[in-house]
Amino acid sequence: MASGWDAHSDVDSRFDFEGQDSALWRHLPRLVDGVNKLAISDATQLVALYQYHSIEPEVDNTLLRNLTGISDPSVPCQLVLGSEQDQHRLPPKVGTDEHSYDLGLSFNKLLLAPTIYLKCTFLRVLEEGRPHTAVLEWHFNSYSGPGTGIVDYVHDDSTAVISFTAGPATCSGFNKLERAKNKLCDQDNEIYGVLKSYLAHGEHAVKLKLKGNSLSLEARGELNKVRSRLPGGDGVLLPTIGAVEYAAFGDKSDRVHCARDGMLSPADMLLPIIKHPMVPIGCTNTFTTVKEASVQLAYSAVASEAEARESTKLWAQVYHSAKVFPLGNFAVLGVRFQKFEKLGSANGELHYRLPKEMGASIVFKDRRSGMSVKVKTILIGNVAELPPHDAFFQIISESAEYFGSGEMVSVGRSPEYFDVKIEPVYNSATYASQLATVAQLQLPGNRRWHGILLNQVHDAIKIIDLTQPKEAEATIAPHIRRRADAWLEDWMTWNEEQVAVIEGIKVAKGGTILVMGPAGTGKTLLQEALSIYFYLLGFHVLALAPANSNVDHLAVQLGRIEEREKLPSALKFLRMYPSVRDFIPKEDGDATELDPIPAKHSLVQFYDLLSAIDDRETDKQTARRYGLAQAVLHAAENHTHVLKRCLRSSTGNARGDVVNAWDLLREFIAKWSHGGTDRESLRSGCDDQIMAQYRMAYAQCRAHLIGGNRFMLATTGNARASELVQHWYSPEHEWNVKRLGVVVFVDEAAKDVEVNVWSGVVCEQWASGVRGVVMFGDDKQLKPTNTCSRGRINFNAFNDRLDIPLPCRLVEEGFPHYRLLEQRRMHQVLSRFPNREFYKGKLRDGAGTNLPLDARLPGLSKALKTIVAEHGSHSFDESRLYKVEATDADIRLHWVEVKGDRIRHPGTKSLCVREHVQVFFKMILPRLIECFRQMDKRVDEHIMIICAYTYALHEYLDGIRKMLRHNDHLTVADMPQVLTVDASQGREASMVVFDGSCQHSDCMGFVNDDARCNVAITRAKEVFWVIGGAMNAKRAENSNRKPATLAKYKHELGLMGKCHRFA
Question: DNA2/NAM7 helicase-like C-terminal domain: which residues (predicted)?
Fold first, then answer.
């Protein structure tokens, strides 16, 4: 390693190897604190893992690899069956082509959870062109109680035979064989039957004849180092043999301790005899045990959170530049980052991004008084109306008027930037939820989900009818079921795959339904229909998705159904947004000087309600109108609820006499809405007791609506929001709501980390009532966003676990699932390439995907022809000819070729081609605005720009801001949406313009990723244009390389005459 990472720990005494096999741990003293690069201490939160590319004479890298992963090479072998007198071997011979499978013996995870690893390769059972493999693992520890581990292990060198007795093996790769067993040849069926017999309960005698003659002397020598450390070997026995698996992560055999403030630190895991090896650990589609699942899910989250936290601390150590902007009734701080040390190295080799949710206290000086001012803020996303900044923080402790009043601060209207010190609130609600989820998942009460979690053998998992009540003695009246069934059947004309899903809810394997399908195949329609169906039956419904945009889209769609369609009964749902109280600074008071000032009441706890009051007109146009705060406001103003109880503090203690909480809340709302002195009295005029009553009343009114509602929408990261856990699906007597059970829906489940998907399923408040879970996604598109560092510097031993979503690993192991194959989003012209390139031609175009563009958006065809003719043609005649001869297909799909320079942002290292942006605003957008105005339609509802890089996104947002500033007649409605590729998944638009910031085929960056390219290409319904370069190779030696998908797309469009160079 280079730089500070070369410095070895100077406290080798921490690692006491006396009486131990020191060869196992010689790499550990070379590791240092990942932040300060000093010796590992009790305060260390991150350790830069040992990398095998390090050349350390004292460290045996090959041995370390073989002890922490699957030992290599695998030794060809035979299973020896029968008694000594009647013995036969499978396969009968090794090293010939007379049989249809091979067996290979290895060892796995010997320094963590040691197993004997037997792999069977079925040479004639092909999976995407590769032979299928099935694996058995016998454990050297009693992984599931007495009698499950290996005993009597003997390795006889003279006969090259390994024999042992063990309990049932764990496995992977068996489910697909089970489904295909009728197609297996006789030899495959024989070995499959034998291998499967080792999964049965009870003890099994196993004998393996090794055939290692083909191995090199070097390979034999490396394997002998491993075998010498196993029972009967001539070396020091591995400390993990017979011990609790993953002992470095806790001494319990069946679980790992999970608590936000009680996770083991790196130092804790290096002290015991069995240590964390501090190297990257491979992760697969199966877990051998629940403890292994718990360790990987929990400690991948621990390392991810620690990395984010330590990165943010480094970012917050320096002063940044900021400016105050008014935004509605609140003020926003636009922040520009100054140079700061980045986690990873002194040279800042690793990029940094702020957490998605974060609160902060921000301190700055008032230029008039010289006093230091502290305000409470929350991090928000990009604001299209404001100039691009590295981050925006909305001030929640003061209104916009505060900064323009001149009473305290004079920075609000100043054109200059000023220095700010940001004090982040390290309180990740998502992280706390992840640890709590793992803690719940491993409990015996959630054992019903362990078969799906382990993902080993599916045929033993029970079939469940999700439409039957989960709660004991609960029933569904026949007439209610008939009405719900009739509504679901008649709501729309379902295709055959959708019908299969609907019928499948009565035969759900383990209560789990997986629905996979590309964009536009009706996943969202099915989710809407099925969630309403279960709601009509009387179930509680929890609809989740990883991103706020996905949840908001579902809320809007459900709202339209509620408003426009006649349902058998009223549909009432709530959108649960992350509560500001989960991540705001905890100190008392609002904007405060660090010098003494008169005390003022905190209104932070009312932030979402006050926003709902002040922004009610704006919220009517967004998904916010279905939010909890808006629902509370509506209920209070319309006197629809009464809640006469004693007020209770946040700790649950009763305060005062019985009151109607809604009356108190109405009193507060009236004062705030009236403004003036009444509003100011809420800050300084009321006494503490009255403000406390208002806060408790608001909390109880929120609880009233949550407890009384059966349909909640939230992100997976917010599924365990404290208010939900406390009040939703409460006992019937609490809120007088009948309980049949809970059905959980997870949209875009393939784009979320696994632990988040489990969060809404095993939450202790309703886990016993969960009837089933329905997951939707596309395993061909983007996987979860993993922000952990990787490569040369890696802090997360289980980094790979964050890349493997639950539905994808289930599907890959053969779990029953449904594939939707009829797409109704993209016009047929647009669907051909992604269908062929990503979905093997299995998709079919549904009804309505062949309509001409003018039938959908009259006038757009002419506008697009004009754009190409005016700016993409080389002569007047060519321009005129294009306008006449260009077909509907020609203008729907187009490559706008622009020559430019790919530049890198000096701070973030993100990319952009500014010439692409200039062409869009000068040559494309003006015609589109004119066209959509003539159609009396909003551009922002029909056109989307998708950017591969955030630098390019900021340039487009800046272009929008400038265009609005210089054209008074234009509004935000005339501007397109601008999203990154990741943010666009799950979204759609009539026309999409994709800017991958690409000029050459051999300089693609992460646009070279097929999943990312798939997302970008499949967002458009009617028109898809790409702005890019000529896509020739920048270096001649790369000309013969296999082209990336986007370069291949450009080549095909060029051959079809759908590519024009814009000057």
Answer: 809-1029
